[in-house]
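Input structure tokens:
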């Protein structure tokens, strides 16, 4: 099971820590400043007032040396930690490519330049699909989310024209065959109201074949006019995140997602 890492990997660019034997030590005030607890001046003040703890003991000396790999550092009682990797969620707008680079505009191009380094999208949404897209620097998480053995659920809302066959939900549930013979795993098809005068369907997949929703809907007699992904595993598209915007995952979202992936593992990939 993967954990949110504490450590120096994310410390690139920070002042080089002092070495003492094998331990890598850094001044407490410097570390807390890098953790975003305030400006250096504010942090020095706060430490002197007793707001920092190292390994459970209040430390009032801003110059005290700590080991960010080993020592538990708290500020106002809250454990301070680095994440080794970065995790962002984006509400992908229609019209951009799910790729790191392309001659056309990509999801990574939507991020400010300073945020882009090392990030890649987890899985792929079609150019005209909107919705929840995870971007990360964590290849292991990406692999786990994409691995067919983990069966992580992805939920889509599809606006459909043309009408679906009466037995469409049963065919989705059985595991339908696409027009080219591709076999799909069992999926869920549920009515989700109406949008712009067309029926809206909630479609839950546990795999990610090329154009899968569109092809399944087509095999059931309909046509997807608009498609939006609303969740991946435990991660949900927040209502306050408009298309084209993004934010970092909260620690709680990340922890729940990692726990979910851990629970969702089956037999090894074959
Ligand atoms: N299925 C599709 O057809 N398109 C997507 O973008 C995602 C799932």
């Amino acid at each position: 099971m993967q954990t949110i890492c504490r450590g120096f990997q994310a410390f690139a660019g920070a002042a080089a820590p002092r070495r003492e034997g094998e331990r890598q030590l850094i001044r407490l005030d410097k570390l807390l400043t890098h953790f975003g607890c305030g400006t250096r001046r504010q942090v020095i003040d706060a430490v002197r007032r007793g707001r920092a703890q190292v390994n459970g003991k209040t430390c009032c000396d801003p110059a005290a040396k700590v080991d960010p790999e080993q020592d538990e550092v708290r500020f106002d009682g809250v454990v301070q930690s680095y994440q080794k990797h970065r995790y962002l969620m984006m509400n992908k707008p229609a019209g951009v490519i799910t790729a790191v680079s392309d001659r056309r505009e990509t999801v990574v191009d939507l991020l400010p330049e300073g945020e882009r380094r090392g990030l890649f999208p987890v899985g792929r949404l079609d150019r005209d699909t909107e919705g929840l897209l995870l971007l990360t620097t964590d290849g292991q998480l990406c692999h786990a989310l994409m691995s067919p053995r983990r069966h992580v659920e992805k939920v889509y809302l599809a606006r459909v024209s043309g009408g679906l066959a009466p037995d469409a939900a049963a065919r989705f549930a059985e595991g339908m065959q696409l027009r080219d013979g591709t076999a799909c795993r069992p999926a869920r098809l549920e009515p989700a109201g109406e949008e712009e005068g067309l029926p809206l369907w909630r479609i839950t997949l546990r795999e990610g074949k090329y154009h899968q929703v569109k092809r399944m809907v087509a095999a059931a007699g309909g046509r997807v006019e608009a498609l939006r992904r609303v969740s991946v595993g435990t991660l949900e598209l927040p209502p306050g995140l408009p298309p084209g915007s993004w934010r970092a995952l909260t620690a709680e979202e990340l922890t729940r997602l990692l726990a979910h992936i851990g629970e969702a593992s089956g037999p090894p990939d074959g």
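The longest strand covers residues 223-232. The mean pLDDT is 86.
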